[in-house]
Hints:
Distance between the termini: 32 Å
Radius of gyration: 19 Å
CATH superfamily: TolB, C-terminal domain
Oligomer: single chain
Largest sheet: 4 strands, antiparallel
Structural class: mainly beta
Amino acid sequence: xxxxxVQVVMRSPDGRARHRGWSGIAQLAHRVAAPLSLAxxxxxxxxxxxxxxxxxxxxxxxxxxxxxxxWYRGKLYYVEYDRNxxxxxxxKQNRVFSMDLGCxxxxxxxxxxxxxxxxxxDNGTIGRVxxxxxxLPPYTHDKLGNAFVGPNDFAPDAHGxxxxxxxxxxxxxxxxxxxxxxxxxxxxxxxVELHNANGIAVSKDGKxxxxxxTDDNRVIGFTIAPxxxxxxxxxxxxxxxxxxxxxxxxxxxxxxxxxGALYIGQSPRAEHVPLAGEIFVVxxxxxxxxxxxxxxLQVPNFAFSPDExxxxxxxxxxxxxSPFRGKVYAIANQ
Length: 334
């Protein structure tokens, strides 16, 4: 994706937009002038060495924009955006589980009722899929009639509910949202004014919801109330600050491990940029712990194996046109 302008947004400490303005490409040039080398970034952050190529296994070498995975009942479920499909891997083979043309799949997750839901980024719905892979009638709006603009990613909680992001309109609009699907299937709007809402995850204690704002290059947090409502919006980590402004880092998916660490993926918008293929692992306060490195340009999302010793990573190599060829990796999580 070519960047013609950079939006300048003034925000209060809680992360909400207060003023919008535009600068030209000079603003971008200023922010990335005299970039530090990758080696210097790793040295200044005192990182553990990135995962080596020998610890990486390709489990699907012909995925078409793989995204939004989850490990469920002995299988890896993931979507392929350009194939409009949900695909499974059982440890030996990849098989198409479900297809829904026009959906534009971005993520998949099982529900407490035994079916699956998928974010349909292209047609603005939450798709539903039966346990047998049959496509069911989708959810098209919340209980008040609010539409879903660019549904993106899911985060199940411990109560049978599921949070999901709606990215909002591309460009300068700050109209991303977070919705919640209750165990009774009631859908409510829980957060607004997000700048390209993307990855989303619930902390292991169930008290914090993490949300990626891709176009603000950061992860924010909300406090989760017993009724699933959200409050106390705050910034957890800005990826540009974390990497000393070597390059604009466009965060994508986020997952939380059993120790509370956040794994943050990214999707660069140009080829041959510093830090491409890096997954950033930070603590709940946003301190960088280590990185994992994949041989793909974009690493938008991932899922843990049950013992968390393996991370299943979605990689995208072709970002400029369909079929958006990529790979699905299994990488040692150490």
